[in-house]
UniProtKB/TrEMBL annotation:
Xref: Pfam families: Ank_2, Asparaginase, Asparaginase_C
Residue ranges occupied by any L-asparaginase N-terminal domain in the UniProt entry: 18-251
EC number: 3.5.1.1
UniProt-listed SUPFAM superfamilies: Ankyrin repeat (SSF48403), Glutaminase/Asparaginase (SSF53774)
Organism from which the protein derives: Exaiptasia diaphana
Name of the featured protein: asparaginase
UniProt keyword annotations, A-Z: ANK repeat, Hydrolase, Repeat
GO biological process: asparagine metabolic process
Residues of the active site: T27, T149
Primary enzyme class: hydrolase
């Protein structure tokens, strides 16, 4: 079956395709009872036969009246033969009306017994589903799995790894409201899943919900009370059901090796999810990482950050990875990617934690279970596989070399492929492509590419990416001095702001690029933050005893005497935390020790009230030196 919309046979009869529906349970087929919604065997089929878009009664009547019709027999002979398992189980054939594409879908529902709520499913149930898909794989054009919504993303992710070399469409679907209710989403979800499974070859494990076909291992349930229950935060839908069916064929993931379907059934159960939260105890982390735990999805803050002032828990992560536990870093955010640009993320990398890119927790967990079950692989090989894109579950960072060679021939090739000839049209192409290429070149550190792009008319200040960042922002974030120097020499503005109102200097400070900060200040960059913002940042650093970062802020021109909402300076904060290194740094940089907070206390008063004799001595020595200096 081609990957385009199929049509009728040459004899004018509709083409028929067969779809198997594995009904594991879920809301879609539940029946209302005195004790609430409950699953019932055979109930889904009963309700489907009341829906004309899902059941063609006229066709059934014609088949009964024309069992001996030669044309019908000839048509049937062109389809896959029904195997003995199919006949023995007596699965009822349910015909759909002929679609606008000239296809009649015949589908067969296999009820699992018992039908389960998805919250009760386990790895053993995933194995059962996978083995059934393998069992009936060659007899059907596509397979649908009816499933409860609560754990649908987990099952879809698991199946995507278990079904190796998948070459047919597998779709999970369900509903938020039972299909028999007057207002329900089950009818459209089942109809859409059948349309895709019966019309297209999309060799992935997908989820179809609310008019969208998603890659299953990219999904997560985002709403418990809406028909729009699922989302694919970091990847657009593979297809959407509009007036016409719109399939993004370029986005479809296809396995590279042409091998037969193989089902991997030995999943490793010793995996888990650990979500960081402020104040998490080391005892909790230690207990979670104990044997038999072998794989952990660590859900961190933001872009993969964890507290870098908690050596106790970082140490536990390091101990775990050293004894062979694979820990994958995934963000707690719905959208975004884990990166190692922040100090609070790099400490995890140093502890052996693997960045999970933009994988969902569901995908990362099931991927761990899958990879850890391959006993013949070494620990190093397993860790490498975690980073690889096995089933389209993550976005792999592009290598820098891919952006190293860009010249005018590229622009001309694009224009030629678009049949562009006029100078005005060429201008629009350059305007669209050059900013993207400039930012890519800055990211990859290719000065030669930047030179060529500028020769073609690129503007170092007019080239922005999707976040409004200029090439200078990007080079400062990465700490590439060569690119930064070149851009500054070409007139790149140190005052340019992105959509978050951040300057290149702000980014250099944020990513701790001290040399870049110094160069930007030399070029005239200034801090344009509110004093309250600066106070919050510096007081936080003082509390954490991060002297190096305080040095970067000082280099950028920050006032070390700024006060927080209580009128407390960084010196007050450092004294109360007994952070000797920070206190020495602040005193050496000439902070005002006479500033009083709203409680009328100086930092020295705080030291005396806490009996910090070593701190009091530091202050006395500092004050004494300042008194002596004028007469020296």
């Amino acid at each position: 079956m081609a990957s385009e919309e199929p049509g009728c046979h040459k004899n004018g009869r509709p083409r028929t395709t067969r779809v198997l529906v594995l009904n594991t349970g879920g809301t879609i087929g539940m029946k209302k009872t005195e004790s609430g919604y409950q699953p019932k065997l055979g109930f889904l089929q009963e309700q489907i036969k009341r829906l004309p878009m899902l059941f063609d009664q006229e066709y059934v009547n014609d088949v009964v009246d024309a069992k001996s019709n030669d044309d019908l027999a000839a048509e049937a002979s062109e389809e896959p033969e029904t195997k003995s398992e199919f006949t023995d189980e007596k699965l009822e054939e349910i015909p759909m009306p002929v679609s606008i594409h000239g296809v009649r879908i015949l589908y067969y529902i296999k009820d699992y017994d018992p039908i389960k709520d998805s919250s009760n499913l386990t790895i053993e149930d995933w194995v059962t589903i996978a083995l059934d898909i393998k069992k009936y794989y060659k007899d059907y054009n596509g397979i649908i799995v009816i499933h409860g919504t609560d754990t649908m993303s987990y099952t879809a992710s698991a199946l995507s790894f278990m079904l190796e070399n998948l070459g047919k469409t597998v779709i999970l679907t369900g509903s938020q409201v039972p299909i028999y209710e007057q207002r329900n989403d089950g009818r459209d979800n089942l109809l859409g899943a059948l349309m895709f499974a019966g019309h297209y070859i999309i060799p992935e494990v997908c989820i179809y919900f609310n008019g969208r076909l998603y890659r299953g291992n990219r999904t997560t349930k985002v709403n418990a009370g809406s028909f729009n229950a699922f989302d694919s935060p970091n990847l657009p839908p593979l297809a959407t059901m509009k007036v016409k069916i719109d399939v993004l064929w370029d986005a479809i993931f296809r396995c590279n090796n042409n091998k037969a379907l193989c089902v991997h059934t030995h999943m490793n159960p010793n995996v888990g999810l650990l979500r960081l939260f402020p104040g998490i105890t080391v005892a909790t982390v230690k207990a979670f990482l104990q044997e038999p735990m072998q794989g952990v999805v660590l859900q961190t803050y933001g872009s993969g950050n964890a507290p870098n002032n908690r050596d106790d828990i970082i140490s536990e992560f390091k101990k775990a990875t050293e004894r062979g536990v694979i820990i994958v870093n995934c963000t707690q955010c719905i959208r975004g990617v884990v990166v190692d640009d922040y100090a609070t993320g790099r400490n995890l990398l140093d502890a052996g934690v693997i960045p999970g890119s933009d994988m969902t927790p569901e995908a990362a967990l099931t991927k761990l279970s899958y990879i850890l079950s391959h006993k013949k692989l070494t620990d190093k090989e397993k860790r490498e596989l975690i980073k690889q894109n096995l089933r389209g579950e993550l976005t792999v960072a592009q290598s820098q070399e891919q952006f190293s060679l860009v010249d005018s021939e590229f622009i001309e090739a694009v224009a030629l492929s678009l049949h562009v000839g006029s100078s005005e049209e060429m201008k629009y192409i350059r305007r669209a492509l050059l900013p993207v290429l400039m930012c890519s070149a800055a990211s990859s550190g290719s000065v030669s590419t930047l030179e060529k792009l500028l020769q073609q008319g690129a503007d170092p200040n007019g080239s922005v990416n999707y976040d409004g960042r200029r090439p200078l922002h990007i080079s400062c974030m990465s700490g590439n001095m060569e690119v930064t120097e070149y851009l500054l020499s070409q007139g790149a503005s140190v005052h340019a702001r992105d959509m978050f109102n951040r300057t290149p200097l702000d980014d250099a400070i944020k990513f701790r690029k001290k040399a870049i900060v110094n160069r930007l200040v030399q070029a005239g960059a200034i801090l344009n933050k509110k004093s309250t913002e600066i106070a919050g940042e510096i007081c936080s650093l003082a509390a954490k005893n991060r002297v190096d970062d305080l040095g970067i802020w000082t280099l950028a021109g920050a006032d070390l005497n700024v006060c927080d909402y209580d009128g407390r300076t960084p010196l007050h904060i450092a004294v109360c935390r007994n952070n000797i290194e920070t206190i020495k740094f602040l005193l050496d940089n000439g902070v005002d020790v006479s500033i009083r907070d709203i409680f009328d206390n100086t930092a020295l008063d705080n030291a005396k009230s806490q009996d910090l004799e070593n701190v009091v001595k530091l202050f006395n020595d500092y004050i004494g030196m300042r008194v002596v200096r004028p007469s020296a």
